[in-house]
Design a protein that fits this description.
about 240 residues, mainly alpha
């Protein structure tokens, strides 16, 4: 009986009034601390992915603008190909280089003017560009799954920390038989802190995922449009070579 009274007194007096984030973390038990650390790491990683994606999408848009200006400037496609193969640093130049490489292989074999293989060459050019687009978009979509996972699961991880903190509060009440703020506040504060961390990780991840999904969709449409235009140019050149 004396030990029980002593334990209750210690639990009731363990609350020192420190409700800062660091104080809440130090006072939390190992399970809640693990949840908090997991959410913090996920949040920092999300912001690193977000920063990298923002910078990369801006750079890709600028590079695509410059390349299209060069492509439609009326210059030699062979010269542009030589420059592109020397520095294929973005998907649109890689797409152009892959198609031109297939075209040159056919031209070196004298297949451009052959009626029997002309249709097959068109199909190969379209297939090469389609495969290149899929491969480049797969690279650009890296870590998108991570953002989607954090956005959908972080609130539930935070909720787990919340439930665990509330359970600790009820256990403290049961041991001390005291419902004063000194007994209830630490567990409730830990629970709310875990929930907040879950939202801090999930909200930016969800917003970023939706934004980057739209940006990547527009960029994929831009690549497909360029591939269609370039395929039409190659088709006209094949028709001219036949005639």
């Amino acid at each position: 009986m004396q030990n029980e009274t002593l334990d209750a007194t210690q639990l009731a007096g363990s609350f020192d009034g420190d409700l800062s984030m660091w104080g809440l973390f130090l006072r939390a038990d190992i399970v809640v601390q693990a949840v908090m650390l997991l959410l913090l790491v996920a949040s920092f990683w999300c912001w690193a992915v977000i920063f990298e994606k923002v910078m990369r999408m801006r750079r890709l848009a600028s590079q695509a603008d410059r390349f299209e200006d060069e492509f439609w400037s009326g210059g030699s496609l062979d010269q542009l190909y030589e420059e592109s193969t020397a520095r294929p640093d973005h998907p649109m130049s890689i797409l152009f280089a892959s198609a031109m490489r297939e075209w040159r292989r056919a031209a070196e074999r004298g297949l451009v003017s052959s009626d029997t293989v002309r249709v097959g060459l068109k199909e190969r050019l379209s297939q090469v560009m389609r495969i290149t687009i899929d491969r480049e978009m797969e690279r650009l979509e890296r870590y998108m799954g991570f953002l989607a996972t954090v956005g959908s699961t972080a609130p539930f991880v935070g909720l787990f920390g919340t439930v665990w903190g509330i359970m600790n509060s009820f256990q403290a009440i049961a041991v001390t038989k005291n419902t004063s703020l000194a007994v209830v506040a630490p567990g409730i504060a830990e629970a709310l802190f875990a929930t907040a961390l879950g939202l801090v990780a999930a909200i930016p991840a969800t917003i970023a995922y939706n934004k980057f999904s739209n940006d990547l969709g527009r960029y994929a449409t831009r690549l497909e449009g360029f591939a269609g235009e370039f395929s039409a140019i190659m088709s006209r050149q094949l028709d001219e070579a036949r005639n």
